[in-house]
Amino acid sequence: MIPMQEVPGRAPPGPNAIETSGLTKRYGKVSALADCTVSVPEGRICALIGPNGAGKTTLLRLLAGLARPTAGQVTVNGATPRQDPAFLADIGYLAQEIPLYRRMSAEDHIRAGAHLNPRWDAESVRERLTDLKIPLDRAVGKLSGGQRAQVALALILAKQPRLLLLDEPVAALDPLARRNFLGLLADAVAASGLTVVLSSHLVADLERVCDQLIMLASSRVQLCGDIEEILAEHQILVGPRKDTTAIERSHRVVQVTRTPRQTTLLVRLNGPVIDPAFEASDVSLEELVLGYMGQDAPAATVQLTTVGEEK
Amino acid sequence: MTWLVWRQHRVQFTLGAALLAALAVLLVITGLQMASQYHSALVACAANHSCANLSSTLFLGNHAVGFLVILTLGAPALVGLFWGAPLVAAEAEAGTTQFAWMQSITRKHWLTVKVGWMLLAAAIWGGVISALVTWWSGPDNAMQLDAFKPGRFDIMGIVPVAYSLFAVALGIAAGALLRRTLPAMVVTLAGFIAVRAIVTLLLRPHYISAVTVFYKATSSFTPSGSFWQLASGVVGPHGELVTQNTNLPVIDGIPANYLPAACVPSQGRGGFRPPLSCTQALSHFREFVTYQPADRYWAFQGIESGIFLVLAAALIAVTVVVLLRRDA
To answer: What residues have CB less than 8 Å from A99, skipping those under 6 apart?
Structure first.
């Protein structure tokens, strides 16, 4: 893939921190990620959402260069992920397991980081951990899970990357610490133009800070784009229980829930809905996410539907 | 990166240095005692012309220290197990490779520094132990002339350095392939023992074609210095190998069933003089000894070291390929 700046006589297209096309990762015969084409513009905070095993971690690892794609292209900060100090300096990746040297203290990690990175804001880590009352001199293996996560997050920010890839970073944090950290993240993005991709199951948290969304299910991309635009493209239609084929013809029905009295549809709009029988309402991120996830496991819904119709 | 290597492995390195220091103290003290014991024994035996059988009458040092010195055969395996095997495996297990590899350094750089320091430490370990053991064994070597024999050859000179480098490289490669410390340690131990045994038993005797000397059964021959005897025996009048049978009496190294009956002294007949026919029969037999001469000692040390260094280099190459090619 040609880096953008090498294309002659053309201004770089809208700068994207991340661009993938047809990105695929297979382990043996199992596809962890299939034909993934997404892009995230610079300076955004992107939520990476999907059920367990949807391929979120695989995507983040491919972006970080820790894993190699089986097929497809990936461009991060304008370059293919590779073993190069300059490339690595611009990426911050925090794995779900929060890998730190258990017998080393936070201070040891700070010093290691100073030796291993061209940019390193050691003071910010010390300040932040002191504020959080996390001892700098204790082996991180003896800290609580939440404290360990805080150490790892502070370290990753000290690296001052241009792109931050966080795999379930707030899972170990209590609600207050979570809010606190997400606030910090939003500040960093505002101050430095950092791009963030973070995966989480906590949609409410994501909704507060994220402006971009990548939704994965069954190893495939379901949605990718600006959250507000995506929400605007979707509506929930509630109407009498009747034939919905007309709606299905002109719009994409994501999820159908039928009860004997009424039908609820989550649809991706393709123009306005002109069916007075249905009442349209806006969709929340949570409803949208559940709708797309429910698509993944339709068995229960289908059964309910059949039972209802037989009556 | 060096800072991180030191911070991560300082306990291992300190422990290794402490063990070396303890061994040094023990061997220097007992070694000095043995040297003075040997020299006074030499002076004493020279006075009454009994130095020829000094090796059978004098025992130097004490059994416990002697046993410890023999145990240094296993010293290279120790560093393979406790330094080599965890080097990559422990990090892969704990997931800390994902920390190290997401700093602004390439995996190659990470690996080069870690492996480099570990190999250096292993070489120092093998070198110090070998230097101590070689010096300590000086009087014993002079007396027993067995420095070339398997078991002694392996703990002196330069081969312990090569063994240590090989053991650590084997541990590193096993750890990189298996990504788990305990299985890597098992593989390292088994692999080290297997390779050492194969090289010692099958390859070492043939580095340079052995010398075979034939001599009359009635005479005797001993190669000079610390030679390594590979085989010895007797060949008959037609060049056939004489099989030894422990149940039969032996005359001048030849079992009685190969000789005329007249050669065999009957019980209780003192001052037996074999008849001429017997002496003639005996003269058709020759004894032989196949051996590696003492002056090949350093050539053998060099060849054996070369083999293990090449193996170590190959294992490191495997590690590099595995770590750079495979997903983290």
So the answer is: A152, B94, B95, B96, B97, B98, B99
Query: Given strand A163-167, what is the order of strands in its sheet?
Result: A91-94, A163-167, A195-199, A45-49, A212-217, A220-226
Q: Do B98 and A93 touch (CB under 8 A)?
A: yes
Q: Which of A22, A66, A18, A63 is nearest to A44 (CA)?
A: A18
Give the Å distances, CA to CA, from B101 to B95, B96, B245: 10, 8, 68
The length of chain B is 328
Residues B268, A268: Cα–Cα separation, whole Å: 118
pLDDT at B265: 67
Considering CB atoms only, which of B4, B107, B108 is closest to A112? B4
Stretch A52-64: mean pLDDT: 93
Report pTM.
0.86
Q: Which of B8, B96, B328 sits opposite A100 (nearest CB)?
A: B96
Residues of B in CB contact (< 8 Å) with A are 1, 3-4, 7-8, 94-109, 324, 327-328
Average pLDDT (B193-207) is 96
Are A105 and A29 in contact by the 8 Å Cβ rule? The answer is no
SS3 A73: strand
Question: What CA–CA distance (Å, rounded) separates B267 from A205?
Answer: 106
How far apart CA A50 and CA A214 sit, in angstroms, is: 8
DSSP class of residue B267?
T
Determine the average pLDDT of the residues in B204-227.
89
Residue in the structure block whose two tokens are 């293990």: B308
Across the range A248-268, mean pLDDT stands at 84
Q: Is the ipTM of this complex over 0.85?
A: no
Residue B217 has a pLDDT of 77
Relative to beta strand A195-199, strand A45-49 is: parallel
pLDDT confidence of residue A269: 85
Left, alpha or beta for A168 (phi > 0: left; psi -120 to 50: alpha)? left
CA A197/CA B295 separation, integer angstroms: 70
Using CA coordinates, name the residue in chain A closest to B327. A67
What digits encode the pLDDT tens for the residues A160-171? 999 999 999 888
Mean pLDDT of all residues belonging to chain B = 89
Interface test with chain A among B91, B103, B107, B109, by most A beta carbons within 10 Å: B103
Confidence of residue A5 (pLDDT cuts 50, 70, 90): very low
Mean pLDDT of B90-113: 94
Query: Is residue B210's pLDDT more than 90?
Result: yes
Amino acid (1-letter code) at residue A105: S
Kindly state the tokens that stand for B124. Answer: 């120092």
Print burial letters for B212-235: b (CB count within 10 Å at least 16), e (below 16). Answer: eeeeebeeeeebeebbbeeeeebb
Report whether A48 contacts A77 (CB < 8 A).
no
Burial of A303 (0-12, 13-18, 19+ CB in 10 A): exposed
Chain A: closest CA distance from residue B89 (Å): 14
Question: What is the phi/psi pair of residue A244, to 5°?
Answer: -110, 10
Neighbours of A217 (CB within 10 A): 21
Q: Tell me whether strands A220-226 and A252-258 are parallel, antiparallel or unpaired.
A: unpaired
